[in-house]
Amino acid sequence: MNKKFFVTLSIAAALTIGSLPTLGTTANATSSVEELKKKQEDVSSKKEKINGEISQKSEEINQNINKQKDIKAQIAALDSKVKDTETKITEKSKEIDETNAEIAQLKEEIKVLKDKIEQRNELLKERARAIQEKGGSVDYLDVLLGAESFGDFINRITAVNTIVSADKKIMEEQKRDQAELEKKQAEVEDKLATLEKSKANLVSLKQELDSQKAQKAELFKQLEKQQAQLKVEKADLEKESNALAQMEQEIGGEIQAEQARLAELARQRELERKRQAEAEAKKRAEEEAARRAAASNSGGSSSAPEPAPAPSFSAPVSAGAWTAPAYGSITTEFGWDTLNGKPRYHYGIDVASGGSVPIKAAADGYVIKSQYSSSYGNVVYITHSVNGKTFTTVYAHMASSSVRSGQPVDKGQQIGYMGNTGYSFGQHLHFELHAGSWNSSKSNAVNPRQYINF
């Protein structure tokens, strides 16, 4: 498989816009270069688009990396909170253990208090039984009045006071101990309930933090997976961009090679034209010498008739901004027709005539190019500004050109002669009119009859 076919195949596969035309004929050599340039532009455009996508992927990768960093920071913060919560749970558990120990100690104290209360109850019961056995009550007044002497009365008062005080003290201690017992029980139970609630809250907080941490870890995994996919997509785009860059370079090489071939073809055609002109000039000189020799040999009594010059026809210059560029018959109109049995779109009007036919500028303007083309032959491009609009006219297949690039021309000014150069089948002028600038796709071509009467 040669390099040219590989490039053609690659372009067809990459752009799906058709294969390249054959480059071997003079008829389509110039258009082939233009198509190669168009495909090179398409490849370059696609490469730029892909490079833009690569930049976008790089931006997405950087954003993903920043998100991963942020998630890592959040996970680290959650880890710190979890550890802090675990520490607090441990502290609360320790406090609960201490409180439980305190409760155990309190239970021992309660047991002691219960024993003391029990003992006091027994004492009170004894007192109650003694009173019951003596009649059910003790009349302390009788006890005092039964004193035998004042000293005995004092002693009796002291004894009664002692008994009453003892009973009162026992009752007060009983009441105080019971209140203290109830208070301690309530305090310890409240403390234990508070600690249990605080620990439960901490355990719930830890579960919530663990859940958040798990969610962040899952999000981080998704970001890692997305990062891997973005890297794969970027690598694929870079591979495609490199392939397009290589394709663009190969097409550039094809363009250079084809331009060199066209230049060589133009040089050879110019040499051939000069050889033909020299041969014709030599032939005319020999014929003239032979004619003169014949006339001399005849003694000058008679002479051969001078050959008639080729007729010359010139189209009249019309009024207005435009005029017909040449005299002759219209052989091909603008639009679809057939060439060699194949349909084609004809972007101009063909005017044909025999003899020496001057070609004139269709309107005032400036010569853009005056050159030789393998397809157009001797061709002149003129730009015009008519009523504020830009137009371009093309004059192809001329025998010769009498203007140069950058030269101003007037409407009706002669710019050359009708000919049969380039891809042509008989003497004629191929005339194109473009509403705007000329381009290889001829997208601005319009029917010249819209502006010019032929």
Please supply descriptive tags for the structure shown above.
15% strand, rod-shaped, 4 helices, alpha+beta, two-stranded antiparallel sheet, ten-stranded antiparallel sheet
Write the layout of secondary structure elements.
Elements (H helix, E strand, L loop, with lengths): L2 H13 L13 H105 L6 H6 L4 H148 L31 E4 L2 E5 L2 E5 L2 E4 L5 E3 L4 E9 L3 E10 L2 E13 L6 E2 L4 E5 L9 E7 L10 E2 L8
Structure described in brief:
By secondary structure, this protein is α+β, with helices and mostly antiparallel strands.
Strand content: 15-25%
Total domains, how many? 2
**SSE string:** HHHHEEEEEEEEEEEE
Rg from alpha-carbon coordinates: 61 Å
Descriptive notes:
This protein is α+β, with helices and mostly antiparallel strands and 454 residues long. The protein folds into 2 domains: 1-133 and 199-300; 329-450, Glucose Permease (Domain IIA). It has 4 helices and 12 strands. It has helices at residues 3-15, 29-133, 140-145, 150-297, and strands spanning 329-332, 335-339, 342-346, 349-352, 358-360, 365-373, 377-386, 389-401, 408-409, 414-418, 428-434, 445-446. Strands 1, 4, 5, 6, 7, 8, 9, 10, 11 and 12 form a 10-stranded antiparallel β-sheet that branches. Strands 2-3 form a two-stranded antiparallel ribbon. The longest helix is centred in the middle third of the chain and has 148 residues, at 150-297.
